[in-house]
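Run log, item B.
One chain of 250 residues. Sequence copied directly from the ordering sheet:
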Amino acid sequence: MNAMIPLKSEKDLEMLRKSGKILVRVLKKIQECVKPGISTAEINALAEKLILAENSVAAFKGYKGFPASICTSINEEIVHGIPSQRQLKEGDIISLDLGINYEGYFSDAAVTLPVGKANSQKKKLIEVTRKALSEGIKQARPENHLLDISYSIQNYVEKNGFSVVRQFVGHGIGHNLHEEPEIPNFGSPHQGPLLKGGMVLAIEPMVNMGTWESEILDNGWTAVTKDRLPSAHFEHTVAITEQGPEILTN
């Protein structure tokens, strides 16, 4: 199974660091414009402009037919929310998921943030999801197993009374947006392929306030929680090195 997980050279990692830095700059500027009254189409237009200014390409646009440069998922939307004229409202939460291609090197990251002031339950959901990602990243080191990452995410989320989405998973990344392996956010420890230095993973817990079950809306893209309770999503692109995990999108 390990044979299928591509290992990156030092040159690859150098380029992926550059790609990650660009992505962080873009995502930071986008986050600053999130406020009540802005439409997700406006957020998408800003993302496109910023990515172009960095001599990069939006990795999502046209990917399997996705129509936009950024995924904007609001409240009960888990992932793959399509930007539209819908305006953000005070108390919403929004997940921004962005991927870029810089000179053939892909990076991918996501963040969930409140629009104005969110209630305490939504705040807790965001905080637990953010922390679950860092718990998962801690396990991304040589000689651990892939599902050590998955288990630590699930364990942290469920301990805090929330549930992890099962229909969508993290992935390898580098020369392509999606590479081997798939990285579920649930599983038993000490299972799955051994992790090795040079692997690059997009680790991305998606966490629901209620049931883990999801369904896809009629647009064929947007995933929502089955019970329509809110969902949060955080993601980093992480290189596994002999010194431990290196977050390329920090």
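Observations after the first pass:
- The longest helix spans residues 10-32.
- The chain is about 30% helix and 25% strand.
Flagged for discussion on Thursday.
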